[in-house]
Design a protein that fits this description.
By secondary structure, this protein is mainly α.
Length: 566
């Protein structure tokens, strides 16, 4: 470990802490329509509703909210699939790239509509400019806005009393896009262009190397795609190398900016939650729990990647830090980043649902790989994506107060709402869906020839490659162990199924919980009420998340990174 690495971590932590309250307050005002920005653009927003035939004043119950959400994203999947299949005859295709094969097109359409951004292809050789902009970027906005909308609906469930509605999906999604995602993306795009990220509709260019040879340099509308991809939790890169590519992440400033954007909305929504339920201490408690889990994971990954690579030790390679090299495990990492920023970026991207990468996770030491997988296996509770991180943490909060209620012999309550059988059933359905997809599909992949044929390695590491893929897909992350050849019929279809289930079979129970809670009265605080703010509840919350995740995944983890570690 070096002082430069610790300095980067300290700067990142300070920036995150600084944005939580102002952005959280802004989102809360956007949600209830009290923001000056909403009033300023009200005519524009009203015109959009009239054009779409939507009454913004008509609120929805949880069933109508869920049906609107599902219909919107099914339509989005169909449009993105069609764009890929027809891109060879559509404009803005200067490289004349062929149509995307059917199974890959379906996988990609589901991937971006579910906020996973799993990519079984190299973007610069597979997607036209039109597909990148009108397809992938649009779905990045839509999926990110949906996550925020679901989080707002669940917050209303806690905040309202004796209510039959939880908001209007179309209004929540429109405002999240128009007032949150779009302005931040525009500013981030301008900064990325200033730092050297391409933004053009032109074709690729040929460059002459120092040796006198020629190379084709891919370019396109990169900055605008990367800005919203990292902000919305999609993380899909324009280039196959993702944020390791100098055209996506050229400087230390862009690296810090992209990490900040990845966490930005996820952490801010904790403050929005506190404001909307009338007690900001509740939001700070959730934020503290998220940061505690993130810090533990980051320390483990940074420590793991400053440890020398065992294969290089056997080869007699000097891996100690000096003035000429960063030291540690440099396999699969950019020299300009070193273990410090690589460990920070990897932990940030797996603790969220983003999936952008600036190093090769397949080359990380086993302990680090274990942590990266564990981050994703906790149902996005470690910050997670925009909205999905908040409702993931709130699901664990419901389990925590339920377990505490059993221990003290009282009906469990959270924020004055009694947690009863229906809420617990829906919570467990949401929490168990992702593990079922991860473990079920991984088990099938490691026994069928179609699954085994895609693995580049045998033994524990090969198992880890398949386990990581389904973990990343079902947890809507999208990063990968690159040793797995996932662009096959088997992996394209099974990963698409895992991504769809891991997104929408989680969201529907969450909306059901919101509807159930909104209909309840708020019980007055008594001497037996469990305080849900402060250090005690932070420890309880983190402990419940760790125990649930450990009991669910330890056997699989033991067969993969743990076996490889020993």
């Amino acid at each position: 470990m070096t002082w430069q690495g610790w300095l980067q971590i300290a700067v990142f932590a300070a920036l995150i802490a600084a944005v939580v309250k102002p952005l959280g307050g802004y989102i809360a005002r956007i949600a209830d329509g009290s923001s000056r920005v909403v009033r300023l653009f009200a005519p524009c927003e009203a015109a959009m509703y009239r054009l779409a035939g939507i009454d913004p004043d008509e609120e929805q119950g949880w069933v109508a909210y869920a049906l609107a959400l599902l219909a919107f994203h099914v339509a989005g999947i169909a449009v993105l699939y069609a764009l890929q299949r027809l891109q060879n005859v559509l404009p803005l295709n200067p490289q004349h790239i062929d149509a995307v094969p059917p199974d890959l097109a379906l996988n990609t359409a589901v991937s971006f509509a579910t906020n996973a951004s799993w990519q079984s292809y190299a973007g610069e050789t597979t997607m036209s400019h039109l597909t990148q902009m009108a397809g992938l970027v649009v779905q990045s906005f839509a999926s990110g806005a949906t996550g925020i909308a679901v989080a707002l609906a669940l917050i209303r469930g806690f905040a309202r009393r004796s209510a039959r509605t939880i908001g209007n999906y179309w209004v929540d999604m429109t405002r999240a896009t128009l007032y949150v995602l779009l302005p931040i993306s525009v500013v981030a795009t301008l900064i990325l262009v200033w730092q050297g990220v391409p933004q053009t509709l032109g074709g690729y260019v040929e460059a002459t190397t120092l040796e006198g040879g020629t190379r084709l340099l891919a370019r396109g509308p990169v900055a605008s795609q990367i800005a919203v991809a990292v902000l919305s939790g999609d993380g899909g890169g324009f280039f196959n190398a993702n944020a390791a590519h100098p055209f996506e992440n050229p400087t230390a400033l862009t690296g810090m900016l992209e990490m900040l954007l990845i966490f930005l909305i996820g952490v801010a929504l904790t403050n929005s939650f506190g404001r909307m339920v009338g007690d900001q201490r509740q939001g700070w408690t959730l934020f503290a729990a998220m940061m505690l889990m993130f810090a533990v994971g980051l320390l483990a990954v940074y420590s793991g990647e400053t440890t020398p690579n065992s294969a290089f030790i056997a080869a007699g390679v000097d891996q100690s830090p000096t003035g000429q090299q960063a030291g540690g495990n440099m396999e699969g990492k950019e020299v300009r980043f070193g273990p410090g920023q690589s460990a920070l970026f990897a932990t940030v991207t797996t603790a969220s649902s983003d999936g952008a990468v600036d190093s090769m996770h397949d080359s990380f030491n086993p302990l680090s790989a274990l942590v990266l997988m564990s981050n994703m296996m906790l149902d996005e509770a470690v910050v997670g994506g925009p909205g999905s991180g908040l409702f993931g943490m709130l699901l664990f909060a419901i389990v925590a107060v339920f377990a505490a209620g059993l221990m003290i012999g009282r009906t469990p309550e959270y924020l004055g709402k009694k947690i009863e059988g229906n809420e617990v059933k829906m919570t467990m359905l949401a929490l168990l869906c992702v593990p079922a997809c991860i473990l079920g599909f991984s088990a099938v992949a490691v026994v069928l020839p179609a699954g085994l044929s895609g693995m580049a390695n045998a033994g524990p590491h090969g198992f880890s490659e398949a386990l990581y893929a389904y973990t990343s897909g079902a947890a809507t992350n999208g990063s990968a162990f690159a040793g797995l050849n996932a662009n096959t019929m088997f992996y394209n279809l099974t990963l698409a199924a895992a991504m769809f289930a891991g997104r929408f079979i989680v969201i529907v129970p969450v909306l059901c919980i919101a509807g159930l809670l909104a209909a309840k009265r708020i019980a007055p605080v008594s001497g037996g009420t469990l305080p849900t703010h402060g250090a005690l509840f932070v420890v309880l919350l983190v402990g419940v998340a760790g125990i649930v995740g450990g009991l669910t995944f330890f056997p699989a983890i033991a067969l993969g990174p743990v076996a490889e570690l020993f």
